[in-house]
Amino acid sequence: MINKVVKNADEAIKDLKDNMTLMLGGFGLCGIPENCINAMVKKGVKGLTCISNNAGVDDFGLGLLLQTKQIKKMISSYVGENAEFERQMLSGELEVDLIPQGTLATRCLAAGYGMPVIYTPAGVGTEIANGKEVRKFKFNGEEKEYLMEHAFESDFAIVKAWKGDTAGNLIYRSTARNFNPMMAMAGKITIAEVEQLVPAGELNPDHIHTPGIYVHRIFQGEKYEKRIEQRTVRKK
Amino acid sequence: MLDKNGIAKRIAREVKDGMYVNLGIGIPTLVANFIPEGINVELQSENGILGMGPFPYEGEEDADLINAGKQTVTLLPSASIFDSAMSFGMIRAQKVALTILGAMEVSENGDIANWKIPGKMVKGMGGAMDLVASAKNIIVAMQQVNKAGESKLLPKCSLPLTGVKCIKKIVTELGVYDILPEGGFKLIERAPGISIEQIKNATAGKLIIEGEIPEMVI
């Protein structure tokens, strides 16, 4: 067995350097790699380009790295919950590339599947199509236009899973899965932090979402706050 | 004039048995509360759920289980969970039968704008561009006039577009409209108590009125 285990978040990101491009899993605050984000704040790496569906909130998730101005550019689909983000973007301090959520997911997927481009109808005829190749395809009984989009390339992919084993196999829980599996497949180096790290052999191979081949480093997170962004309930 | 729940209630009548439905944030989310008894549908949430259920009981919230609006939700017995790529895969492949979403502006040829006000507000398109580019059946739930009293049903959108020629039906506080393939908002129903005159005043784009227009039943 190839052992992927590192001691903690600090060790997992030890060679993460200024100006690198990172993918970070999560949807809102759900399924984000909390421990690695905290370690990056501590390490003080700067000039980062972050590919992540959202940008956290002001005081949690990627919002922490925005506050300390460690992020140069965000590539996201929706950033509406973060006042500091909006301020930095409108003032021009932060570069922002907003792209459709399905395009974001599929550009990660393409990287993990070894394909350089995808064609998607999302954004045809809008400003995000500017400068991109548009091609017509007949598909599913209709002819329409598709935009060519490139697979993402990133130095590190940092994901969060529920359970993982020492061989790097991962299982996600509920909607904390979101972007994590595609990003795990797409990093030059993939770091997985998990809530429970178990010896290889304990996870049922049929239940594994991300095979260990995609994961280079794995550790059990020290603690998880798992903050809820919108607590909505009904009365009994 | 309909309130938000009224708009949601009217849209719920468009939901047919056996449909997989994606509900956007805001008024569309409310539609789930008004789906008639006996109509079985499955709600898709683009962060990776089919078979989304109601909000959890107090104390049963699960931080790992949220909808696309980041609200805590539950799963129905039929539910499944998947990743974001598969979620948009099923949307692109038109497996999701009905999409209901909000809009800032809609034009008479079916263009929609709902993600950006240049220089002021940039929240991002989220999944909206993917949804409108692929869904066959899209209903827009929106307010017909803004706070300044200006119509948001326009000859041409003034804001950056989310999608082109994709909207076919709109439900507002004043009425129900079909967008015709050749262009134009065709009035189908009036909201209770709303006159044709009020609707004309609230529609900047080409409005088509043929014959008697019934009041909607909700």
Radius of gyration of chain B: 17 Å
CATH architecture of chain B: 3-Layer(aba) Sandwich
Summing up helix and strand content along with how strands pair, one would put the structural category of chain A as: alpha/beta
Q: Average pLDDT of chain A, to the nearest integer? A: 96
Task: Kindly name the structural category of chain B.
Answer: alpha/beta
Name the CATH superfamily assignment of chain B. Answer: Glutaconate Coenzyme A-transferase
CATH topology of chain B: Glutaconate Coenzyme A-transferase
Number-wise, the strands of chain A total 11
Indicate the low-confidence ranges of chain A by residue numbers.
Answer: none
Low-confidence stretches of chain B: none
Largest interface: A-B, 60 and 58 residues
Number of domains of chain B: 1
- Residue share in β-strands of chain A: 25-35%
N-to-C SSE series of chain B? HEHEEEHEEEEEHEEEEEHE
Strands, helices and their partners?
The complex is a heterodimer of chains A (236) and B (218).
Chain A lengths: L8 H4 L8 E4 L9 H10 L4 E4 L11 H5 L3 E6 L6 H9 L3 E4 L2 H12 L4 E4 L13 E6 L2 E9 L3 E12 L4 E2 L8 H7 E12 L18 E4 L16
Parallel strand pairs in A: 1-2, 1-8, 2-3, 3-4, 8-10, 10-11
Antiparallel strand pairs in A: 5-7, 6-7, 8-9
Helix pairs in contact in A: 5-6
Chain B lengths: L3 H9 L7 E4 L3 H4 L11 E4 L3 E4 L22 E7 L2 H9 L5 E5 L2 E3 L4 E2 L2 E2 L3 E2 L5 H7 L3 E4 L11 E2 L14 E3 L3 E5 L5 E6 L5 H6 L5 E2 L10
Parallel strand pairs in B: 1-2, 1-5, 5-10, 6-11, 10-12, 14-15
Antiparallel strand pairs in B: 2-3, 3-4, 6-7, 8-9, 12-13, 13-14
